[in-house]
Amino acid sequence: MRGRKINWSLFAVVTGMVLSICACSSSEADSLIDSGVQYIQDHQYNEAKETLSKALSKGADEHDCNRALGICSLEQGDYDDAIEYFKTALSSGNGIIHEVDFDTNFYLAKTYYLNEDYEDAINVYNAILNLHKNDVDAIYMRGACYLKEGNHDLAMADFQATIKLNSKDYDRIIEIYQLLADNGYEEEGIEILEDVWDPSHMTNYELGQISFYLGNNAQAQNYLELARNEKGVTDKTPIILLLGQTGEKQGDYNYAISVYRSYLEENGKSAQVYNRLGLCEMQMAKSYNDISYYTAAISDFENGLELNDSNENQALLRNEITAYEYSGDFESANTLMNTYLSLYPDDTEALRESIFISTRI
Question: What's the fold here for domain 235-361?
Answer without folding.
Answer: 1.25.40
